[in-house]
Amino acid sequence: MSAPIPSPTTHKIAVRCQGVTKTFGTGAAAFQALRGVDLEVRTGELLMLVGPSGCGKTTLISVIAGVLRRDGGTCDVFDHDYQTMTEQETTRFRGKHIGFVFQAFNLIPTLTAAENVSTPLVIKGMNRKPAVVEAREMLRKVGFDQRMEESSPVDLSGGQQQRVAIARALVHQPDLIVCDEPTSALDSETGHKVMELMRGLALASNRALIVVTHDARIYEFADRIARMEDGRITGIETPQKPASPASEHSTSLKP
Ligand SMILES: Nc1ncnc2c1ncn2[C@@H]1O[C@H](COP(=O)(O)OP(=O)(O)OP(=O)(O)O)[C@@H](O)[C@H]1O
Ligand SMILES: [Mg+2]
Q1: Residues spanned by the domain of 187
Q2: Which of 82, 85, 132, 165 has CB atoms 3.0–4.6 Å from 66's, for a disulfide?
């Protein structure tokens, strides 16, 4: 069962976006993907971001994770603004504080699954050998066996690659975990197991988690669900679960 909705008095603000804008391309080809996004995420919270294809979900979480620069508005992540940081500072901040599951997984084909998962630990300064040992432990938690750990991502199924990407995002215990469609390639049972793992790991130590999803089967794992349309957040909803206090704009979610 999920944790109660974080209260402003006990949970810190992990992410605060105000009026965030982002345009791709220029001139006649310009497309405004984010049109003034306001969003707040607190520690201890799992926020799901839902909305139709092309509404700007990946763009928004890429801005929040510091992999894409915004054009306007403000976006603070644990009181840090990427736009006041150098590229090196941003990379260091991301490596330490953020875990990102990319929609396309972005695994390195020349490394084994275990080596892929170990990379955030190595970037953080851990020696390769203990990093791979920790990576294996994390892969076991997402249902991998020894043979799969030694496989190249190209020899794994889509669902297995997705689990490697999830393990890689969680292994260094980041403060903010951002996942783009983390259960899209998983069957219902594995998807539930992965979400349970994410909730446990992510929220046990007062972290925050943002999950982009089209998968109504995992809505129950959310504390709040932010609906996005045409580059804006159009509503915040609370999934129906017992003993959850109502939040702003509270309604039940229709898949
Ligand atoms: N690098 C880019 N260059 C040009 N346009 C882009 C780029 N990235 C995204 N867009 C456009 O911005 C809009 C939002 O894209 P985004 O990937 O954020 O949508 P999404 O909500 O994640 O969609 P999906 O659910 O299909 O993943 C889309 O119209 C897309 O075509
Ligand atoms: Mg997307």
Answers
A1: 43-61+87-237
A2: 82
